[in-house]
Amino acid sequence: MPLVKTGEGVEIFYKDFGPKDAQPLMFHHGWPLSSDDWDAQILFFLGMGYRVVAHDRRGHGRSTHVWQGHDMDHYAADAFAVVEALDLRNAVHIGHSTGGGEVARYVAKYGEPGGRVAKAVLVSAVPPLMLKTEGNPGGLPLEVFDDFRKATADNRAQFFTDVPAGPFYGFNRDGAKAYPGVVQNWWRQGMMGSAVAHYEGIKAFSETDQTEDLKAISVPTLVLHGEDDQIVPIDASAHASIKLLRNGTLKTYPGFSHGMLTVNADVLNADLLAFIES
């Protein structure tokens, strides 16, 4: 398998498709999934002539199932290790959900300082902060994430069925057309990863305040969010992020779910392409 070993000895699995001299697009997946969640985008952009790179976060998918380092700093450092190993330059970094937090930390800490990033995209992303606090009233109460932890610890396999069958793709909405294969694929990706990584990662995606990351980003950044996202509140994420970004553009989608990259791939791919080519 194609692997990059970090300075800590963690092996990060990656995919690298397309011409090596083409502009690279690097995709960062959400919790608790893997690079496979980007299949619709990988095929689309590969067909458009781009170099497409996607990796499995530590503890997820085919990367090393380590018990430590499940936080945004390590996630970003691991992404940087892949970028350096593949010598990606002028790259567009696209992150979904927790992967959006990874992108924000990577771009702010490594990508822009190293001159390696051209643009960024945050899709249904967790920044600046998911947790409800006095200064972030639009966030979710801590009890929500405690329930996530309990469900992950008690019966991860069932939890990883209930989430995609319900709120993740909006299949719990009246009149929604559910896709059993999409649910099964979500479950498959989740169960490939480590329970430790998934449990610890809940704190990373819910309690990491990335206000300063967003303020530090100056490259053009596209923020995309579904208006019926039942996982990441749009007010605490997209609407708050656009106020912090120096060069940001916001686009929202009425009725679209957290998993819109999969179930509405045709719409999202077209908008991603327009931004990348702009």
Please provide a written account of the structure.
The chain is an alpha/beta fold. It has a single domain (3-277), classed as Alpha/Beta hydrolase fold, catalytic domain (Rossmann fold, 3-Layer(aba) Sandwich), CATH 3.40.50. It has helices spanning 39-47, 72-86, 98-111, 142-168, 180-192, 195-207, 211-216, 238-244, 260-263, 265-277, and strands at residues 3-5, 11-17, 24-28, 51-55, 91-96, 117-123, 221-226, 248-253. It has an eight-stranded mixed beta sheet, sandwiched between helices. β1 and β2 form a beta hairpin. It starts with a strand and ends with a helix. 48% of the residues are buried.
> Mean pLDDT, rounded to whole units?
97
Strand content: 15-25%
Number of strands: 8
Adjacency order of strands in the biggest sheet = 1-2-4-3-5-6-7-8
Please tell me what the overall shape is: globular
- Could you name the CATH homologous superfamily? Alpha/Beta hydrolase fold, catalytic domain
Instruction: State the share of residues found in helices, binned by percent.
Output: 40-55%
Q: Mind describing the biggest β-sheet?
A: 8 strands, mixed
Runs in which pLDDT lies below 50 for 5 or more consecutive residues are none
Number of helices in the DSSP assignment: 10
Amino- and carboxy-terminal Cα gap: 35 Å
CATH class: Alpha Beta
Q: Give the domain tally.
A: 1
What does the radius of gyration come to?
17 Å
CATH topology annotation: Rossmann fold
CATH architecture verdict: 3-Layer(aba) Sandwich
The sequence of SSEs as H and E is EEEHEHEHEHHHHEHEHH
Helix/strand-derived category reads alpha/beta
